[in-house]
Design a protein that fits this description.
Length: about 375
């Protein structure tokens, strides 16, 4: 199901889904911001981009944020700036969006996969260690840690594994704007981090947009050079670069929404708490776990169910927009060398996960309606 698709319903809860609700909420400020860009006559890498980069870095508590065209480019440029490319491998959790592996492949490096933790759906430190000790781990230069659905990964133990094997630990924060690991924003934990601002993200542009965040000034400068043809001097390419520039319009949109991001994430957490409370004792679904010391950003509210497909159909028939993210683990996808490796937790997650409605404009009574339909399914199946 397309995330922007409006599902039929006997209520009006689903008449305006995210991201449309987000655009409507900020409509007046967005109109002013877009007019400001139109009037400026500067549309690429101008004052709006510079201001957003400064403001987003301040939000994270990091020194540098470099705007790029999208989140997949952010992964590619981050790796290229670290000179991780052809002849190198990058470890990636097998249960993650295909864009993660695609970004690695576009850098020239080979993505290799490790299994996840069952509770948080994030990269398992023991599985990463096993990979790095195996023949498949030869040539791995970095691990790209995905804070999936908005839940921070087990950073301390992953860092311990990375240090033992001498590899970089990098972050994919595309779904985790505002998530905290022991009081620190994700995106500030490793050498560098990639962000996406795709229209469905917690911090959402009105098109494609992304960023690379780092405390390393030299690394940030290399990303800036690569994103625009390798130019240090205009029209003169010192390095092999690409065209991956964040445009002024998207930067202006992101500046508007950044000011409301903390409150919108708090509202996501309130809705998640409502789901959690009502799902205690459910015989059909398991609510998402939250690791101690972590604060979930709830880009998605993801439950597990051994009867996932039947439950998903039941909810959709009631007009409730739900989705299975993600149905095929990366190690089984043909584009990434689909094979018969056993990654038990990734395979189990792909067969069991279900995203329930979650966005900051969702009324609490809508959560109640979802849970009533779910409880009816549980009752009918008992």
């Amino acid at each position: 199901m397309d995330k922007g698709e409006v599902m039929p319903s006997t209520t009006n809860h689903w008449s305006l889904l995210y991201p449309q609700a987000d655009q409507r909420h900020h409509a007046a400020a967005l109109t002013q911001a877009m007019q400001r860009v139109s009037d400026s006559g500067s549309y690429i890498l101008g004052t709006e981009v510079a201001a957003f980069e400064t403001e987003f870095a301040a939000f994270l508590g990091i020194n540098h944020a470099t705007g790029v065209a999208n989140g997949t480019d952010a992964i590619e440029l981050m790796l290229r700036a670290l000179e991780i490319g052809a002849g190198s491998k990058v470890a990636v959790p097998s249960f993650a969006p295909s864009a993660v592996a695609a970004g690695v492949a576009r850098s020239g490096a080979e993505p290799v996969f490790a299994d996840i933790e069952p509770g948080t759906f994030t990269l398992c430190p023991e599985a990463l260690d096993d990979l790095l000790r195996s023949p498949r781990g030869h040539g791995v230069k970095a691990a790209l840690v995905v804070h999936l659905y908005g839940h921070p990964a087990d950073w301390e133990n992953l860092q311990r594994v990375a240090d033992a094997h001498g590899i970089e630990l990098l972050e994919d924060c595309a779904q985790a704007h505002g998530a905290l690991w022991h009081g620190r924003m994700v995106g500030t934990l490793g050498r560098a981090a990639a962000f996406s601002f795709y229209p469905t993200k917690n911090l959402a542009a009105m098109g494609d947009a992304g960023a690379v965040a780092t405390n390393d000034a030299e690394l940030a400068e290399r990303v800036r050079v690569i994103r625009q043809y390798g130019w240090k001097e205009r029209y003169v390419s010192d390095h092999a670069g690409v065209n991956s520039r964040l445009d002024e319009l998207q930067a202006a949109v992101l500046r508007v929404k950044l000011g409301a991001l903390n409150e919108s994430i708090l509202q996501r957490r309130r809705l998640a708490a409502e789901y959690d409370a009502r799902l205690v004792g459910s015989r059909v679904v398991t609510a998402p776990a939250v690791r101690g010391g972590c604060e979930h950003a709830y880009h998605q509210y993801v439950v597990r169910s051994e009867r996932r497909d039947a439950l998903m159909q039941h909810l959709q028939r009631a007009g409730i927009p739900v989705a299975a993210l993600y149905p095929v683990p990366l190690h089984r996808q043909r584009a990434f060398g689909g094979n018969n490796e056993i990654m038990l937790e990734s395979d189990r997650a792909a067969a069991a996960v279900l995203s329930l409605p979650m966005h900051p404009y969702l009324p609490e009574e809508a959560v109640g309606d979802v849970l009533e339909v779910l409880e009816k399914f549980e009752h009918e199946g008992s």
